[in-house]
Design a protein that fits this description.
- With 415 residues, the chain is mainly beta.
- Among the domains are: 140 residues, Sandwich (Jelly Rolls); 141 residues, Jelly Rolls, CATH 2.60.120.
- It is 14% helix and 35% strand.
- Strands 4, 5, 6, 7, 8, 9, 10, 11, 12, 13, 14 and 15 form a twelve-stranded antiparallel beta sheet that branches. Strands 3-23-20-25-18-17-16 form a seven-stranded antiparallel beta sheet, with no helix packed on it.
- Strand 1 and strand 2 form a beta hairpin.
- The N terminus is likely disordered.
Length: 415
């Protein structure tokens, strides 16, 4: 085995160490752990002659050959809607990833749903708060707050909605081609297929009780559905203003909007590396239990090294190709690859960064079970610590430290 001293000496000479056709930089932590290819001394160390699925293996190069800086083991931080089974009905479909499927995801569960034009996710409510981001098309949402104030709105791609736990609501796809969106619940165990449905309650309430409740004859309810609707095909809704007027009869208006246009909001961070847009209770007032950051990273750029002190991060990858490395005490470090439709998860206070390894923009949304978005930047910390102290930790001279960004850039462009 090469020693760390040997490899550093090679680095100083400007050479590159080759081990079984695999090369690695000679700084970092190349002597440990043993899973790094840099440790392989013979060609047999890097071959995989056993049964394998090349299609799957090819999507996870960082698992097939982890960086030499890997060490220890962290829980699997990858899941994907791409392999979640769809529940398909006339009017749309949905699929979900909960903690039952994704053990690390304790604070957030996720649902991916498609509604046709006119397709209705029936009137219902949840035990958990519902946050969503539109990824395609147009949708009409309705909700009633705890003070009996209705809200009706149309949302488009890049928009959010938030419904507090217990708030009754509905969703309906608009023309020309309905919609698709991703829902997050502020409970990793929350299940989209186990919601409180209007049709279920009616079907399991005696007709005479329904008659008393609504002040009409029992025969009024002779044709109610006896099985729940969940998602069903309806007719396209009419004019938004007309729906708002009809829903608002004898009721005051909700004081805060239940929707927010995140994609068109001003970025909180923007540079040549990309941009970050944040929605939390400071600008999306109604969203009291969930905050989010929409991150776009240019090709070759990196979402800077950072951590979140107030919540776990649930990620949904919208487009592009990503490589994320997560660091925790131990030490433990794990690198995972992500593509569109995948889900990532980072526990609170775990250091991490996300690289764009593709040739197009990378975009993902980070969702947090917290009213406010919080982030600690590694460079911001080190550039606001006495430089002599940092220099003694890292064996880097103070003049070099002075060149580091001191404004928590959020993203760094390709160097």
């Amino acid at each position: 085995m090469f020693s760390r001293r040997d490899l550093l000496a090679v680095s100083a000479a400007g050479a590159v160490m080759t081990a079984s056709a695999a090369s690695a930089a000679s700084f970092g932590n190349p002597d440990q752990p043993p899973q790094g290819a840099v440790n392989a001394r013979g060609p047999g160390n890097l071959t995989d002659p056993g049964p394998q699925n090349p299609a799957i293996a090819g999507q996870f190069p960082s698992s097939q050959s982890p960086p030499a800086t890997h060490i220890g083991g962290l829980p699997l931080d990858w899941a994907s809607f791409n392999i979640a089974p769809k529940r398909i009905q006339n009017g749309g479909w949905a699929r979900q990833v909960t903690q039952a499927d994704f053990a690390i995801s304790e604070e957030i569960s996720g649902v991916n749903m498609r509604l046709t034009a006119g397709g209705i996710r029936e009137l219902h409510w949840h035990q958990a708060a519902e946050w969503a981001i539109m990824t395609y098309g147009n949708c009409r949402v309705t909700v009633l707050d705890v003070h009996g104030r209705p809200y009706v709105a149309d949302v488009k791609a890049g928009d959010l909605w938030y419904f507090p736990a217990g708030a009754p609501h509905s969703l309906q796809g608009l023309g020309p081609d309905g919609c698709e969106f991703v829902i997050c619940f502020d409970d990793g165990k929350a299940n989209e297929f186990n919601t409180l449905l209007l049709s279920d309650w009616f079907a399991h309430t005696p007709p005479e009780v329904l008659a008393k409740n609504f002040g009409v004859p029992a025969e009024t309810f002779a044709k109610i559905p006896l099985q729940n609707l969940w998602i069903f095909q309806g007719t396209l809704p009419g004019d938004l203003a007309a729906d708002r007027k009809a829903a608002g009869r004898n009721a005051s208006a909700a004081p805060h909007p239940f929707v927010f246009s995140l994609a068109s909001s001003p970025p909180t961070k923007q540079n040549a590396g990309g941009d970050v847009r944040v929605a939390d209770s400071s600008n999306f007032t109604v969203s009291t239990s969930i905050s989010a950051a929409l991150v776009t990273v240019r090709p070759g750029g990196v979402r800077e090294m950072h951590w979140h002190p107030n919540a776990d991060e649930w990620q949904y990858y919208i487009k592009g190709k990503a490589r994320m490395t997560v660091f925790n005490t131990g030490p433990n470090a794990r690198t995972t690859d992500f593509t569109a439709g995948d889900i990532g998860y980072v526990k609170r206070n775990f250091g991490h960064y996300v690289e764009n390894i593709g040739d197009t923009d990378l975009q993902f949304i980070g969702v947090f079970r917290a009213s406010r978005y919080e982030e600690v930047s590694l460079t911001n910390w080190l550039t606001h610590t006495p430089p002599a102290l940092v220099a003694q930790h890292l064996n880097i001279d103070e003049a070099t430290i002075a060149k580091w960004p001191d404004n928590a850039p959020g993203l760094m462009p390709k160097s």
